[in-house]
Amino acid sequence: MEDDKPWALVSGAVEHGLYEDLTPIMKQHFQILCYKDFLQNPQLHGPKIQAVLLWDNIPPTDPSTLRSLPSLKVVANGGVGIDHLDVPYINSLGVKVTNTPGVVSDATADMAMGLLLASARKIVQGHQISVDPNTTNHKPQSLMGVEVTGSTMGIIGMGHIGCRIAQRGKGFDMKILYHNRNRRSVEDEQAVGATYCEKMDDLLKESDFVVLAVNLSPETTGLISTRELNLMKPTATLVNISRGRVVDQDALVKALQSETILAAALDVTYPEPLPRDHPLLGLPNVLITPHVGTDTLSTSRKIVQRMVENAVAVLKGQSIPNEVKPK
Ligand SMILES: O=CC(=O)O
Fold first, then answer.
1. Transmembrane segments in this chain: where (predicted)?
2. In angstroms, rounded to a whole number, what is the distance separating the alpha carbons of residues 110 and 241?
3. Annotated catalytic sites, by residue?
């Protein structure tokens, strides 16, 4: 019965009707309250909310919002990255945090390869030239690309997503190097055909494509800065599908302007979106997409399904598929 279902506070995307396909999955288990309606009267609505279903980082989970949700038991994040959440603080309120690892890996790895290929083969520039009514030369020298097949890809961060990127790289006969906090087992390495670089510097020096697939943490903030960019080949491309802050963006702008590296392909920046006058937007050797690594309908369904399963498990006191514990 509808009335028996617990209440969940849901995001702007749902309230704008953007994800009609996804809302029924939430409604199977929850009565949903959109953030915009919550804001009309937080004192009235706050006490009934037991779960926050977080999509695109909305609703906010700042202390003042959380304080107006006294019955809250779980913040269920849709997606794997939880750098926008203060997990220890949320836990200190007796509220659990969950995320959705695993289900995002294939779509994100596809996006990494898409960015890599589009940047190497100048697909966006080619499209622009092809559709420009003023174009006279349809195949200018400037569209000459970089060969992906047989090149070397260095993956920094070999979790679920990194492994899926490596598998895809194998399909392009790439040599795959990886660097990770902990070395993977020999079986894992063989399964994805990747060679471990204990020193990240070695990977940076050798790779034609450096792909960032690490979580954002204090250790990985600014991981790629001037020193690291200087180690990369002048013919190399940086691909980032993790979080913008893993790269020192000012250093990246300089490296691209001075052609210290060839190009960058970024699904993530900081902030998102970049201000319209940001220097990265004016560079010819940059490809940027608006953080859409997981945005396929099938993956979005899986994310919402898992987000809901996590929230339901917390509320029912069952074993939680993906609880995030503070480090
Ligand atoms: O950015 C996407 C995610 O964190 O899953």
1. none
2. 10
3. 243, 272, 291
Report d(CA 261, CA 77) in Å as an integer: 35
Model ipTM value: 0.95
Q: Which DSSP letter does residue 274 get?
A: P
Position 284: which residue type?
Answer: P
pLDDT-based confidence at residue 80 (cuts at 50, 70, 90): very high
Measuring CA to CA, how many Å separate 50 from each of 66, 79, 236, 255, 308? 11, 20, 48, 48, 12
Least confident residue range of 14-23, 77-86, 161-170: 14-23
**DSSP E strand stretches across 121-169:** 152-156
Q: Hey, CA dihedral for 64, 65, 70, 72, is it positive or negative? A: negative
Q: How far apart are CA 37 and CA 8, in angstroms?
A: 12
Structure tokens that stand for 308 in this block: 């809901």
Query: Which of 80, 214, 270, 322 has most ligand 1 atoms within 8 Å of its beta carbon, as the pocket-test mutant?
Result: 80
Residues 6+ apart with CB under 8 A from 186: none
What residue ranges line ligand 1, CB within 6 angstroms? Answer: 79-81, 104, 293-294
Preceding omega of 279 cis (within 30 degrees of 0): no
Average pLDDT score over residue span 302-327: 95
Handedness of CA 247, 250, 251, 252 (dihedral sign): positive
In the chain, which ranges are continuous DSSP H helix? 12-15, 23-29, 35-40, 42-45, 63-67, 87-92, 105-120, 123-131, 160-171, 186-192, 200-206, 226-231, 249-257, 297-316
